[in-house]
Recover the amino acids of this structure.
């Protein structure tokens, strides 16, 4: 019911073109998944997201567990019906959000005790509970519960938490048997920023019958060079016939660097979060719509972009909306940034086919390396 097929391999790198085949549809890879944290890609109608060509989005187990609760969504017929999304949904396990949002958490062999960032109420998240919640959401692709390891972390702590992630992965598989008909379960590789621990974790997760493999615990503040080294350490141990998912990444340059190293799937809040803060991705680099120079600029955000925003609105008007805190600004800017990301993913797929992936990487380096991003990566 869930298959991954490689259509073409680049002969100069580990990049590959593929398709993910599911009962709900077919997804071309490499693929970027917009983040719909609480059952909504912020500021955009589901129809708009679909019209941009996106066939899969990410939902967040942590947030939906806290509000409105999995029972409500199950009663509604699952997350697809609840939010009126006809494409696929991948849900994360909630481990990253417990790590990044909860003011209190206690990790035990059994699971994670944490307090809600909303009202302080206590929850106990176990590998089994994480899957139960995602099954109630009726996700198409589910993630096992893992322990997101902070950066920096000692080798001793990293090894301990990686082994715990492995035990939880096995518990997840045991619990999964017979429960996920037509759905896919992905394992998560940890190992922190230690190459040998990354290799060990990749080998361990790859030896188990997961439908896909995810690289977790990255994009947590480490330099790009370290992240790329951790990807390179893990990839040789991962089977060719399963999709590889780099969680919470990232900028266009981050993505193409990972594609070159053999990664197929990505998610990140950057395009929509940056849009809500006035930071736009364009063919000429990043621009901040807040800048005074755009007050009387009646040109589009990006002369090479054909999105609805660029076809119909000027920088001057968008700046006015943003500074006036008009809600329309968030819709128009988010629409532009997601259009840009969709175009970048199409360019990546075309570059793999043409053998020009390194040229595309160099182009993105020139655009973005000298322009620090306003927002960090991450899937929340």
């Amino acid at each position: 019911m869930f298959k991954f097929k490689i259509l073409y391999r680049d002969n100069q790198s580990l990049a590959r073109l593929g398709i993910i085949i599911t009962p709900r549809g077919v997804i071309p890879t490499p693929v970027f998944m917009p983040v719909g944290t609480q059952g909504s890609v912020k500021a955009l109608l589901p129809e708009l997201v679909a019209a941009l060509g996106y066939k899969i989005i990410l939902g967040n187990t942590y947030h939906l567990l806290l509000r409105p609760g999995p029972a409500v969504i199950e009663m509604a017929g699952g997350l697809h019906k609840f939010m009126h999304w006809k494409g696929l949904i991948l849900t994360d396990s909630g481990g990253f959000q417990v790590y990044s949002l909860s003011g209190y958490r206690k990790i035990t062999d059994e699971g994670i005790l944490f307090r809600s960032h909303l009202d302080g109420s206590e929850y106990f998240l176990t590998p089994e509970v994480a899957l139960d919640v995602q099954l109630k959401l009726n996700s198409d692709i589910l993630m096992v519960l893992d322990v997101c390891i902070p950066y920096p972390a000692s080798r001793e702590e990293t090894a301990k938490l990686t082994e715990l992630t492995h035990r939880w992965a096995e518990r997840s598989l045991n619990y999964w048997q017979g429960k996920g008909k037509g759905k896919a379960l992905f394992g998560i590789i940890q190992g922190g920023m230690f190459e040998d621990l990354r290799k060990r974790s990749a080998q361990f997760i790859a030896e188990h019958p997961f439908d896909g493999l995810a690289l977790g615990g990255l994009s947590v503040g480490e330099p790009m060079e370290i992240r790329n080294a951790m990807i390179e350490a893990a990839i040789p141990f991962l089977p060719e016939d399963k999709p590889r998912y780099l969680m919470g990444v990232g900028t266009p340059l981050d993505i193409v660097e990972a594609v070159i190293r053999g990664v197929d799937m990505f998610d990140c809040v950057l395009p929509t979060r940056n849009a809500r803060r006035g930071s736009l991705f364009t063919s000429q680099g990043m621009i901040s719509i807040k800048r005074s120079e755009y007050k009387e600029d009646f040109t589009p955000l990006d002369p090479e972009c054909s999105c609805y925003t660029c076809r119909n609105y000027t920088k001057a008007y968008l700046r006015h909306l943003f500074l006036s805190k008009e809600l329309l600004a968030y819709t128009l800017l988010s629409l532009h940034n997601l259009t840009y990301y969709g175009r970048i993913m199409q360019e990546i797929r075309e570059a793999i086919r043409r053998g020009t992936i390194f040229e595309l990487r160099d182009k993105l380096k020139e655009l973005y390396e000298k322009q620090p991003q306003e927002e960090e990566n991450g899937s929340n």
User: Anything to note?
Assistant: The two ends are 29 Å apart (CA to CA). The mean pLDDT is 95. The chain is about 40% helix and 20% strand.
